[in-house]
Amino acid sequence: MSERDASPTSRRTLREEQRPRSRWLWPIALTAVVLVAAGVVGWQWAPFGLAPADRTPVPTVTEDAVTPVAALAAGTCLAEFSSPWDATFVPIDCAQPHVAEQYAVVPVASQFSGEVWPGVDALSDRAMLACQAADALNLDAAGQVAGLMIEARWPSSQAEWDAGVRDYRCFAVTLGSDLVGSLAAG
């Protein structure tokens, strides 16, 4: 039976069967186009909402490169940093991007007089005064570094003090950016 031979009732039924497919075709196609467009726009805008990936090459660390904290000089730049209390560090050329620097070694005598152990609380209370002094830190250069944090290390026990550890070790550390050059006072 052809469509012409079909009665009006059967034609209507045939058309009604075809309509649901065409009725859903346009909304599905429109939804697909909107999703593709949203994906393209999201892909274009993604760099503005995500932190950039760290593309700084990480230097290869050898046993010779690891240096005990006591051997670090003022102005030593560091490839890695987790805490001023680490026993060893990996020095790197300050011309290379780096995450931290031991910019000063300040004698405790700059804050205390005498040979008597001042105690951990007294040493920690004055650590930032010693490390943020103009003769320790290049304040102009430090003010230009976003996210800069100053961390300090001091003799942590009377045993260290009695063994001759009498310095504050001052570290400049960055979050999310790299330092280039030194922050040590001139």
From TrEMBL:
Membrane spanning stretches: 24-46
Entry superkingdom: Bacteria
InterPro entries: Septum_form
Short name of one Pfam family: Septum_form
Segments forming domain Septum formation-related: 73-170
Keywords on record: Membrane, Transmembrane, Transmembrane helix
Protein name: Septum formation-related domain-containing protein
Organism expressing this protein natively: Gulosibacter macacae
Highest classification ranks of the organism: Bacteria, Bacillati, Actinomycetota, Actinomycetes, Micrococcales
